[in-house]
Specification:
153 residues, mainly alpha
Length: 153
C-alpha cells in the first residue's frame, strides 16, 4: 500500500512525458498541421482520462495512508500535491479542452471563409493555458515524488 501513490504518480508522469515529448512532436513532424491537430485532439480526452484515473488512485492511497497514520502534520503536503494535480487535470479536460476545440473549429471556419478572426487568438491563449496547466501538473508530480522519497527515509 505504501508504494501505490508513488507508482501511480510515476506512471502518470510517464504518460504525460511520452505524450508531450514523443507522440505530439512526432505527429506534428510527420503529418500536415491540420491532420496532426486532429490526431492530438482525439488523443487528449484519453490522456486526461488516464491522468484522472491515476490521480484518483494516488489520491485515495495517500488519503488512506494519511488518515491511517493519525493525520501527521507533514502528511498533508503529498495529499495537497495530488489533489492539485487532479484538479488541474480535470479543469484542463472539462473546461479548457472543450473551449480549445470550439475555438479551433471557429478558426477553421473563418479560414475557409478567407478571414482571420479573434478565435485564432482565443485558441492560442487556450493552447498556452493548457501547456501551463500540464507543466504545473508535471512539476507537482515531480515534487510529490521528491516528498515521497524523502519521507521514505
Amino acid at each position: 500500500m505504501k508504494l501505490i501513490p508513488g507508482a501511480a504518480i510515476l506512471l502518470w508522469l510517464g504518460v504525460m512525458a511520452f505524450f508531450a515529448f514523443l507522440v505530439a512532436p512526432v505527429a506534428f513532424a510527420s503529418l500536415d498541421r491540420d491532420a496532426a491537430g486532429r490526431f492530438v485532439s482525439v488523443m487528449f480526452p484519453r490522456y486526461y482520462a488516464v491522468g484522472t484515473a491515476l490521480g484518483l488512485v494516488a489520491l485515495c492511497a495517500v488519503a488512506a495512508r494519511w488518515l491511517g497514520a493519525g493525520r501527521p502534520l507533514g502528511g498533508w503536503l503529498g495529499l495537497g500535491l495530488v489533489a492539485l494535480m487532479l484538479v488541474l487535470t480535470l479543469y484542463s479536460w472539462l473546461v479548457v479542452l472543450p473551449a480549445a476545440h470550439a475555438a479551433r473549429e471557429a478558426v477553421r471556419q473563418s479560414a475557409a471563409a478567407g478571414s482571420l478572426s479573434s478565435e485564432a487568438l482565443a485558441f492560442a491563449r487556450l493552447h498556452r493555458l493548457s501547456g501551463v496547466l500540464n507543466a504545473t501538473v508535471m512539476a507537482a508530480g515531480v515534487l510529490f515524488l521528491i516528498v515521497e522519497g524523502t519521507r521514505a527515509r
